[in-house]
Amino acid sequence: MTAGSILSIGRNFWNIRGDLRIAGVVNIGTQMSLAKRANGQYVLLDACGLDDERRAFVDQETGDGRHLEAVLHLHPFHTLFVEELHRRYPHAKLYGTARHKGHAPDLPWQPELTNEAACHALFAEDFDFSVPRGVDFIPANESLHFSSVLAFHRASRTLHVDDTLCYVRIPKVLSFIKQDLLGFHPTLSKVLERRAGAVSDFRAWTKELVAHSRDVENVCAAHLHTLMHAESGGVSISARIEKAARDLEPKLTAHERRFG
């Protein structure tokens, strides 16, 4: 495992933890991940700030960016470091959501959106992707950060996810209450589509997510902490996600009663 803010996770996958401070004080953290593809090239998932340590690591792995094939921005509201990262690695192909393109229209975006199948097909040799259904992917209220594109890196058995799933490791002094928590972002009830069938679509998606996660051993979540296999306490990722989905039922039932 690389020291500091860079975690080596499984085969050919590294999670890079960055700083993100609320009101300039509370550091809730953010992330990006670097993966080496089967073709020998590299991709970055998302973006975070590049201090000397992070920059040197990415440069060393990618040959100063020569072997960095693409940057995939997966969360429509994670935009703070998009332009900075592109300036550092201008030759990497740039992919994002519609909001990324609207936020930084002068950047050379590829036509494929990261939340659409055309983009997923380009990286299918190494990744599977999942997009939540039954929810607003880009809600008008920009404080609602539930939806993102989930990326499964098969070689390392790792799920890279922003906000949609949150992981919190409880300090040891409070471990008598609960050791850790993997759950869905608390804004779900505000982003469920206000139509009949939205809850059914969302439930079906969570079931697919549970099934897909049976091969997952590590979760890299955007804020706070990363859940690695050695620290899982013997509880599988799929079981954790299944429990998190069950915990949503009161919210889902209430929404279904109102909208059908």
Q: What sequence of helices (H) and strands (E) makes up the elements?
A: EEEEEEHEHEHEHEEEEEHHEEHH
Major β-sheet strand ordering: 1-2-5-6-7-8-9
**Structural class by helix and strand composition:** alpha/beta
Assigned CATH superfamily: Ribonuclease Z/Hydroxyacylglutathione hydrolase-like
Low-confidence stretches: none
Largest sheet: 7 strands, mixed
Helix percentage: 25-40%
Integer average pLDDT: 90
Assigned CATH architecture: 4-Layer Sandwich
Number of strands: 16
How far is the first residue's CA from the last residue's CA? 49 Å
How is this structure best described in words?
A 7-stranded mixed β-sheet has the order 1-2-5-6-7-8-9. The N and C termini lie far apart (49 Å). The longest helix has 15 residues. The chain is α/β, with parallel strands linked by helices and 260 residues long. The protein has one domain: Metallo-beta-lactamase, Chain A (4-Layer Sandwich), CATH 3.60.15.10. The chain is globular. The relative contact order is 0.13. The mean pLDDT is 90.
Keywords:
260 residues, alpha/beta, Metallo-beta-lactamase, Chain A, 7-stranded mixed beta sheet, 5-stranded mixed beta sheet, 16 strands, 25% strand
Short description:
The protein is α/β, with parallel strands linked by helices.
Please describe the topology of this protein.
Blueprint: E1 6-8, E2 13-18, E3 21-22, E4 26-27, E5 30-36, E6 42-45, H1 52-62, E7 68-72, H2 82-88, E8 93-96, H3 98-103, E9 109-113, H4 117-122, E10 127-130, E11 150-153, E12 158-161, E13 165-169, E14 180-184, H5 188-191, H6 198-212, E15 218-221, E16 226-227, H7 237-247, H8 249-259
Parallel strand pairs: 6-7, 7-8, 8-9, 12-15
Antiparallel strand pairs: 1-2, 2-5, 3-4, 5-6, 10-11, 11-12, 13-14, 15-16
Helix pairs in contact: 6-7
